[in-house]
Structures are given as C-alpha cells and as structure tokens.
Design goal:
With 522 residues, the protein is of the alpha/beta class. The chain has 24 helices and eight strands.
Length: 522
C-alpha cells in the first residue's frame, strides 16, 4: 500500500471504535496472558512444578467443545474453590472481594480478579503513550469494545460509560459513543468474567444477540483491532456472528472500515498490508493490517481525526435526546421551548449546547474535592491552571479551608483572591500534633523500607507520614500514590474513612514537596 498511516486514518468516514484484546493489558500493565493467569492460580493452589501440566493432561482427555483453555480453567476452578473454602491459608482477598464471595461469587474468580487488580500498575516507560491515548480519546475515539477484564479504560478513559458483560449490552440503550463494552466481564464484577467452559457456553448461546447489538456499530464506525493475534478465537467468533447478519456486498464494504494492528517488537516504524478472515458460506473479510512496535504511531494518526465536540458530550446529548423522544418530557439537561410554530422553518432550528448558567469557569462547579486531590497526583483534570486556582478558594470552603494547591501555584497567580490562605509555607503545617509526637516511635528511614516491611495500606500511609521532609523521596511518593489510583480510580470514594484520611494527608505532603521542587527548579 502506498498510503501512510496518517492518510489511512484520515480516509476513514468518521472517528473509529477500538476493539481491544489482552495485548494491551500485557503491554501497559505487564499482566499475564490466559495461560499465564491460569498458572498463577494453580500456583496458589499447588506449588508442584507439574501441577499445571497435570490439568492440561486431564483436559486433553475430555471433550472440549469450547476449546482447551476453558476446560483447563473449569478443572482448576473446581479444585481451587473446594480448597479455598476448606483452607483459609490460601485466601488473599480484601473485604470488598470477600463480600462478593459471601454473595455467591466463585472464590476462583474473586481471587483472580483481586490478583489482577493488585498487579495492574502502569509500566513507567509507557506513561507518555497512555497519556497520548487519554488525550485523543476525548475527540478522536468513538468507543471501546474489549474482551479484557482489567480496569485500564476505567482509569484512563474515565469519562466513558462502561457496560459490563453481555447482559448489560443486551438490555441497555446504547448510544454508541464514549462507551466501553466489556463483553467478557470485569474485575469489578468477578462473577461476570468469561473464563471457564460454562461461561463460554453461555456466551456462545447469546453471541448472536450480542452480534446483532454490535452490528450497528460495525456498520456505522471504522473498527481498529488492537491487542489480538490475527488468529485469536475471540475475534473470529465475534466476526463470524457479525458476518452471518450481513450480505456479501455488506461484507465487502468492511474492507474499507476494518484495520488490524499487529504488534512486532522487532519492527522500526510500521508496515501496512492486508489480512483476511474466511468464514462459512464462502464469506471473507479482508482488512488493512498495520504492523508496528510503537502504539503512539497509531494514536497520533487517530488523534488527527477529530469530532468537533468531545465524544463524552455527544453521548450525554444522545442519551438525553433519546429519553426526551421516548417520554416527551424535558430532562434535567434538556429544556424545550415551544418549537411547533409553523413559522419556524427547518433550516432555522438551532440547538445550543452549554450549561444552564453563564459562568467563566465552565464546568468547574462540578469538580469535587476527591477529583481535586486525585488531580494533584494524576493530573487528569483538563482545565487551565489559572482557572483551577481561581476556583480553589470556593472549593476549599467544603473542606474546612484546606486544599492542596502548592504544586499548581506560581508567583503570577498571587493576585487570585483567597489563594494565599490555601498556600502551605511550612512542611510541618501539614503534620498533625499526633503525627509529630508519634514520629519517635516509628524510626523509619525512607518509603522503600516502609513498603518492604509493611503490607497494610493504612499502616503504610501512616508510616510514610511519620517521615521527616528530608527522608521523603518525591519520586517514590509519586509512584506510590499513582499506584493506588491505578489500582482503584475511585479509592477516595470506595475505601474506608481511615484510608481516605491517610491518603489525603499524603497527597498534601506530595503537593507541598512538588511545589517546593518546582519553585527550586525555576
């Protein structure tokens, strides 16, 4: 092909949907593949080096209508659950996941979900690539279909609405924009995960309905497949069901709409070619294949094709208009004036999108203190720094006048009314008298040693707070805080009160040190 990757994306009719597989989980979180994950679960059950091989052997002598891996998973799950209920020593779950087991969740799926959640820490060398994905998602990605369980998209595409499992997709009114469809389940709902033989049987039984639901998206949007092998059964099964709903002419049209991203660590730059999938009834899908090792190449190309307004706003608008059409009643976000006057021509009708109030700081009134604290670490509020600081004194009134702003502050913002009252001038002002008194009883020397010796999250945070300013390495603290938000993007809402209090204190410490470091570098 003579087209460049940019020209290829530009030639698409509209912005694409991404169809994402486990390759992205392995790339960004270094998580294991399917077999690797099953081996982890077997190791929790039996340390014998041949334990997993024994399950493979047993599965090979049994009927495998849904493939060998689901059969292996079923055999492991049966043994694992029996041992889990009898032997408390193999239990590793926190209170949230234990509660899910109490409500009927499989211990195997709960332990697997907890393990993956704990291991879901972004590879530091790929942070820029993920930031790029986050940025282009605002106007250049219509939505995500994924077979992955992890919470990558909940964390880094947090403005997208997430639907978990087939049931959610089949019985929800999808808007087809700024949405994530997790068709194989999610770590947040372990029982929804599709991994064993029974799960695949149920998935296959409903696959035709799912295909019909997704068909509109496949016809309306270009689809970019990422994180899969070209032979992946997940892709073939879904495409097979889609193709059954289409005529030969419609199938041929998919050639211009489907792009397959193949990862090759050895390649420099990229190569563009073709790949084909053959199905029953002599139907065949031919799609463009791009081979690369650096995903930022495809992200940059996608980012050049933009919608005029953010996709999250389009989803809200479609959702509200849908509700209004059904009920004929104005919604909280849509107010309808009289427009049935015959004197109003069709080309005179105007839809205005905005807030119900005219404010200079658009949208900032909706920011919560939890979002503010998270932003100090993750920097995911896309507002101008001056606007954020101008709003800070107002937001601080909700939390007794305390809000971290040092890392955002610069001398040019000193005239913002009330900002001086939020600025922390002394490190010890962050530390309570109780923390100060307890320091001598906790002679830790740095963050790394604390994390090696202590596993409880609250005790970790308290001991870090006991450190003196000169004992805290800013990078270590930043990595620690980011890991907590990457493991649970809603930790400031979902965790217990003591954890939330300790985490906010550490964020204030981090904010102070980062602000001090910023001032010194200037």
């Amino acid at each position: 092909m003579s087209k460049t990757i940019e020209q290829l994306i530009e030639s698409l009719d509209t912005i694409p949907f991404l169809f994402v597989g486990s390759g992205l989980s392995r790339r960004y979180y270094n998580l294991p593949d399917w077999i690797g994950l099953l081996k982890v679960m077997v190791d929790k059950l039996n340390k014998d080096s041949f334990a997993f091989r024994s399950y493979e052997d047993r599965a090979s002598f049994e009927s495998n209508p849904y493939g060998i891996n689901p059969k292996i998973a079923s055999l492991i799950e049966e043994d694992f659950n029996k041992e889990w209920f009898q032997n408390p020593a193999i239990r590793n779950l926190d209170e949230t996941y234990l509660e899910k087991v109490e409500k009927g969740c499989s211990p195997f799926k709960a332990e697997m979900s907890y393990y993956l959640k704990q291991k879901s820490v972004l590879c530091s060398n790929l942070k820029d690539e993920v930031t790029l994905l986050n940025n282009i998602a605002k106007k250049s990605i219509a939505g995500i279909i994924t077979t992955n369980y992890d919470l990558f998209f909940e964390t880094y595409l947090s403005e997208y609405k997430v639907y978990i499992g087939q049931q959610a997709l089949l019985f929800s009114q999808l808007q087809g924009i700024a949405e994530v469809y997790k068709i194989h389940g999610s770590l947040n709902d372990p029982q929804s995960i599709v991994i064993n033989e029974k799960d695949y049987k149920e998935f296959k039984e409903k696959r035709e309905y799912l295909a019909a639901k997704l068909l509109t998206i496949f016809m309306e949007y270009p689809i970019i497949f990422m994180g899969y092998y070209i032979s992946d059964s997940n892709i073939r099964d879904i495409l097979s069901s889609i193709v059954k709903c289409m005529s030969n002419e419609q199938v041929k049209l998919l050639k211009e709409k489907f792009i397959f991203i193949e990862y090759d660590s050895e390649i420099e730059g990229y190569e563009i070619g073709e790949s084909s999938f053959a199905f029953e009834d002599d139907k065949m899908i031919t799609m463009t294949k791009i081979t690369l090792s650096d995903y930022s190449l495809i992200y940059n190309a996608i980012g050049k094709k933009k919608m005029k307004i953010p996709v999250r706003l389009l989803r809200v608008l479609k959702d509200e208009l849908y509700l209004f059409t059904l009920s004929n009643e104005p919604t909280k976000n849509i107010k309808v004036a009289t427009i049935d006057d015959d004197r109003v021509a069709n080309d005179e009708l105007v839809i205005s999108i905005g807030t119900t109030e005219t404010v200079n700081l658009n949208g900032l009134k909706g920011i919560s203190t939890d979002q503010w604290y998270r932003n100090i670490v993750m920097q995911d509020l896309k507002y101008d720094t001056k606007d954020l600081l101008a709003y800070a004194p107002t937001l601080a009134k909700q939390v007794s006048g305390i809000l971290p702003i040092n890392s955002l502050y610069e001398d040019k913002f000193k005239d913002i009314e009330g900002i001086d009252k939020l600025f922390v001038n002394d490190f010890e002002d962050i530390i309570s008298k109780t923390i100060e008194r307890e320091r001598r009883r906790h002679p830790q020397v740095d963050i790394q040693s604390i994390l090696k010796e202590i596993t409880d999250i609250d005790k970790q945070m308290l001991n870090i707070a006991y450190l003196k300013k000169e004992q805290i390495n800013l990078n270590d603290l930043e990595n620690y805080l980011k890991s907590k938000f990457e493991q649970d993007s809603e930790i400031l809402k979902s965790s217990k009160q003591s954890t939330r209090t300790n985490l906010r204190r550490l964020i204030r410490i981090y904010d102070y040190l980062k602000g001090e470091n910023k001032k010194a570098s200037n």
